[in-house]
């Protein structure tokens, strides 16, 4: 049965189906190994015995299965068995076969990691041993996953990308395991876990891996951890490949932080304390500078996301709002009237956001950079924006006391 996993004839999706069937059988085999120890065989003997299997892939699946029983028995420290298994798994370097083998190792070990309050803490090891094991397994899995991109002819590039996306969760589950460890507190996350993950993300130089893993980091770790490590996380964004959709990654992070602040008002002082706006604003600027070929729509969308964050978290700071608009004006310099319909749609969204938040046209039009953004709208889009402004005036019964605002309403 295990020898069938040595095949190279199956697509990743079909291989996954074969792996799942094998996994179910291996769970039964694990129960058999437990029974064997009751009949006089030691786990150390079984651990040695399965290493005589002829082929390396079946041998390592058997070794992981016996290793799971070995850890459970506490006849050997969990940290020693885990270290041995993660090192031995280097023997399989075929991308798909290696990826699934390490996925199996991750699955059978996740409830046996030394953690604060777990039965394997103490003689079995510490949370640091568990973190090192998971990080090492994650690093090797990501390398194998990235290597899939370079297998086969160039004409099948899109097919390989599709297959890789189907398998991305195998790699991401390692980060989920790390986020579930009780012993991974903020200090350990800040000093060890996040820097090691980001090091792998940046160094792999792979568009699919970088986008997925950045998204995964934002999704699986707590909001307060992101808040306290904002500079480190944002520092990786300009280092990503130019083809990575950084706009979506950063927008997701800003959305999470603004939702966090909205759901728990008491965290607002923390956001102010870490100067979240300044760090986010600086990161947006660096990303735009690092990617001179970034489509205009993406650059404007980044400013929309930053403005949305600002209006939710710093609603009383009109200077911050004007600063975001000013940064957008800088990006629009030399562009004249924007013709790209997608970009103009985002500019309208940027200009509409303050109107919807403050419900006062006069307050918004006092922003120095507001009219400067409007100058880049073509005639038709300018009409659309003028209608939005007029609708705001009518909806909120705003009293226009001076003709100085009339140029913005000029059709």
From TrEMBL:
**Record-given protein name:** Uncharacterized protein
Q: Which organism is it from?
A: Diphasiastrum complanatum (Issler's clubmoss)
